[in-house]
Design goal:
By secondary structure, this protein is of the alpha/beta class. Helices cover 34% and strands 21% of the residues. It has helices spanning 12-22, 46-50, 68-80, 99-102, 123-130, 165-189; strands at 2-7, 30-36, 54-56, 85-88, 107-111, 134-141, 151-158. Strands 3-2-1-4-5-6-7 form a seven-stranded mixed β-sheet. α1 packs across α6. The longest helix has 25 residues, at 165-189. The radius of gyration is 16 Å and the shape is globular. 38% of the residues are buried. The mean pLDDT is 97. The structure holds glycinamide ribonucleotide. Residues 7, 9-13, 43, 89-90, 110-112, 123, 173, 176 line the site of glycinamide ribonucleotide.
Length: 193
């Protein structure tokens, strides 16, 4: 299963996927490239380090969504690369049409909370400030409704005595780095419905 990774940030989850692949933990999944909407994103540095193509593609003039014509160009680029599964790993832009229909039930997202709790931006901060006894992370199918598609996996992260926002966030990220490769490997095991 040919996997495209889309991200806007430092790329620690993309790196977890690349490491899992190198260690034989990604099953039949093969990472074919990384695409970022931000030219300076750290995730793009992973390409040369791990021997996969890493490409900045213009998303258009908006901050949190694509322009319609640029979203079509992204869909074409991912199709041309032969992507079969699109993984949003810290991709901070809403995915809509035409990308959704170019990859129907083929786009997954990682979110740093126990959805449906705390969708949207700064999920870890939202969880921490709420005082909830636990947080975690979720991998789910991407649909037109933000952070609301069916869940593919979740990992729980308890808030520990003495935790700080930083220590709690670090454990959420560790949980993400385990969960995302597990879900991708599982999806690659059998043909997607
Ligand atoms: C991750 O914590 C991911 O869950 C979050 O961005 C971070 C990316 O980190 N995504 C969202 O908040 C999406 N709404 P990374 O660039 O180090 O993988």
């Amino acid at each position: 299963m040919r996997v495209a990774i889309l991200g806007s940030g430092r790329g620690s989850n993309a790196e977890a996927l690349l490491r899992a692949q190198a260690e034989g933990r990604l099953g039949k999944a093969r990472i074919i490239g990384i695409w970022s909407d931000l030219p300076g994103a750290g995730i793009l540095d992973l390409g040369p380090r791990h021997g996969v193509p890493a490409t900045h593609l213009d998303p258009g003039p908006f901050r949190t969504k694509f322009s319609p014509e640029r979203e079509a160009a992204w869909a074409e680029a991912l199709k041309a690369a032969g992507a079969e599964l699109v993984v949003l790993a810290g991709f901070m832009r809403v995915v809509k049409e035409p990308l959704l229909s170019a990859f129907p039930r083929r786009i997954i997202n990682l979110h740093p909370t126990l959805l449906p709790a705390f969708p949207g931006l700064d999920g870890i901060g939202q969880t921490w400030r709420s005082g909830a006894p636990e947080g975690g992370c979720t991998v789910h199918w991407v649909t037109a409704a933000i952070d609301a598609g069916a869940h593919l996996g979740q990992a729980r992260v308890p808030r520990l005595p003495g935790d700080t926002p930083e220590s709690f966030a670090a454990r959420v990220h560790e949980a993400e780095h385990r969960l995302l490769p597990e879900v991708v490997a599982r999806l690659a095991e059998s043909p997607l419905p």
